[in-house]
Each structure stands twice: as C-alpha cells, then as structure tokens.
Design goal:
By secondary structure, the protein is mostly helical. Among the domains are: 28-88, no CATH class; 106-156. It is built from five helices and no strands. The longest helix has 39 residues, at 29-67. It starts with 28 loop residues before the first helix and ends in a 24-residue tail after the last helix.
C-alpha cells in the first residue's frame, strides 16, 4: 500500500531539515508522538477497509454477472425506484393535489370552454376562407382573361420548344441520335 499521502510519515517537524516544528499550543512532545501513532493506525485501518470494500464490490459484480443482471437492469430498477419515491414524496403529493384542485375549479372549466369555442370558431373561419379562395381561383381560371393568357403561353411554348415540347424534353429512345447528341472530338 502506498502511504505517501499519510501525515504520519511526515517527520516530526513537518519540514525537511534539522529544525523541529513547533508543537501546537497545549500539546506536549509525548502527546504528539501518541497522536502520530494513533494517526498511523487509523490510516492503516482506512486502507484495509478500502481493500475490503473493493473486494466486496468485485464479488457483488461477479454475483450480478452470474445472475444475468446487467448495468441496464440496475439502471432501470434505480429509475423505477426513484420514480416511486418521487410519487410518494410530500412535494409530489401536494403538487398533484393542487393541480387536481385547479383542474376541477370553475375558472379552469370556464377557460377550457372558452378556448375550445375559440378553436372551433377559428377552424370554421379558416375553412370558410379556404373555400372562398378555392372558389375564386376556379372562377379566375375559367375567366376569359386567364384563358387568353393560357393560350398565349401555350403558343409561346410551341414557338420556343417546337412541336416535341409536350413533355418529351429529349425525344423518345427510339429516335435516331442527332449530330448534336454525339459531337465529334
């Protein structure tokens, strides 16, 4: 065991050299020697207890492994137990009771009812607006102005793309390749 951090290993003076450190007031040299001896014993007991604890932890880990208990199982168990502890705590029970009181209060019921009605009215209004917009777009598409615009765009497309411009951007695969498709290099 490494006792490098032990106070009992320090020289009586606490410093390197020949000078003895001053003893605390009211402590004699005999008492200081006795205290250092007791400190050494306590530190040895602490180290022994650490070794025993480490051995017990290894043994417990081995038993858990043999039982098939994984760290995930332990975590799940700890979370479940923690949640049960929270649910039975005074703070949780008080908060839960308060929330129940609020949920059953007249003010809560009125607020809930008002928000529900507002939602229904908003939904109906949006539906009406959507229907009106849809109807107006349909009317606009059937108007003579839109028909004229649509015809002009169609004529322009035919002039720019040509008669093949009805979705056949590159022609059909059975068409022979043109000279532009296979330029000489």
């Amino acid at each position: 065991m490494d006792h490098s951090d032990s106070l009992s290993d320090m020289p009586a003076g606490g410093a390197v050299g020949n000078s003895a450190p001053p003893l605390p007031p009211g402590v004699t040299e005999e008492e200081a020697v006795e205290l250092r001896s007791e400190l050494t014993k306590v530190e040895e007991e602490i180290n022994t207890l650490r070794q025993v604890l480490s051995a017990k932890e290894r043994h417990a880990s081995e038993l858990k492994r043999k039982l098939g208990l994984t760290p995930l199982d332990e975590l799940r168990h700890n979370l479940t137990k923690g949640w049960q502890d929270v649910q039975t705590s005074n703070a949780y029970l008080t908060a839960s009771a308060t929330l129940d009181d609020i949920a059953h209060s007249e003010a809560y019921k009125k607020t809930q009812e008002t928000l529900s009605q507002a939602g229904q009215k908003t939904s109906a209004a949006l539906s009406t607006v959507g229907t009106a917009i849809s109807r107006k777009l349909g009317d606009m598409r059937n108007s003579p102005t839109f028909k004229s615009f649509e015809d002009r765009v169609g004529n322009l497309k035919t002039k720019v793309v040509g008669p093949r411009g009805n979705g056949d951007a590159a022609g059909s695969p059975s068409d022979p390749p043109s000279a532009q498709d296979n330029p000489p290099f």
